[in-house]
Amino acid sequence: MYVFAIIVVVLLLSYLLYKWWSCNYDLKRAIQHKENLKKEIQEHERTIEKLEKESQKFKVVESVLSRLSNTHKNYLIKTKYGETVVISQDDENPQDWQLFLNGLFESQRIHYQSKLQTSAREVSHMIDLLEKVDVRDIDKNTAVCISDISTYIEYRQRGYAQALLMLLVEVSKKQNLKTVLGWLAPCDKEGHAVSIQFFRSLGFEVYKINNDEGVIVKHLM
Fold first, then answer.
1. Rounded to an integer, what distance in angstroms lies between the CA atom of residue 113 and that of residue 100?
2. What pairing do the DSSP bridges indicate for beta strands 143-151 and 114-118?
3. 90 vs 72, 117, 191, CA distance in Å?
């Protein structure tokens, strides 16, 4: 009887020990599962927050396009850095144009980030300057003259000015215009070196009229 009692006690203790171990194991698994669920919830919350931010960006896109679509012809263009921008023209004739560039995901704190203007009235002046350096093959009736190209300081180095110029060249070709001109004015003399480098990188020729001014020329094939 004594031995039997000992066996029963040992079996009972073994069972209780097994149940304790089993409950403890299940508890650890439940705690781990809870932690995993918590991490998943946090990850989903971050995803939702990210999607909400993206949604806000596209609301800005919708607002920008809506604001421009009623008054301008618009082009969606990719810059050399891969950013999609909208360029808006206010007239069908590239010889008297205003082009405005808006970054799609930018706020509307300012009306545009970059702009380019052309002026038919300035073509004759450019041709007169070029004749001083014996360049006489420009037809004023098929020439476009850039009167202004500028980008707000905080939006420079993004390829915006290049995007504007490339669109001007593309549309001018389609309308059978032959030459794009621009003036390196005396009042901008300090910035001539940078401007010359920029325009030459885009295939423009540069003619220095004197130490203070010059003319940029791109022949359209």
1. 8
2. antiparallel
3. 5, 10, 28
Q: CA–CA separation, 160 vs 156, rounded Å? A: 7
Q: Do the beta carbons of residue 205 and residue 217 sit within 8 Å?
A: yes
**Structure-derived torsion over alpha carbons of residues 36, 37, 42, 44, reported in degrees to the nearest 10:** 120
Contact 65, 86 (CB under 8 A): yes
CA trace torsion 70, 152, 169, 58 (10° rounding): -50
**pLDDT, tens only, 100-148:** 888 776 655 557 889 999 999 999 999 999 999 999 999 999 999 999 9
List the domain boundaries for the chain: 1-70, 72-219
Q: What homologous superfamily is domain 72-219 in, according to CATH?
A: Gcn5-related N-acetyltransferase (GNAT) (3.40.630.30)
Which class for 51: exposed (0-12), middle (13-18), buried (19 or more C-beta within 10 A)?
exposed
Biggest alpha carbon distance in the chain? 129
Q: What is the pTM of this model?
A: 0.69
Phi, psi of 79 (to 5 degrees): -75, 175
Amino acid sitting at position 129: L
Q: Which tens digits make up the pLDDT trace of 67-95?
A: 666 667 888 888 999 988 888 887 778 88
Identify the helix (H) or strand (E) that includes residue 86.
Answer: strand 84-89
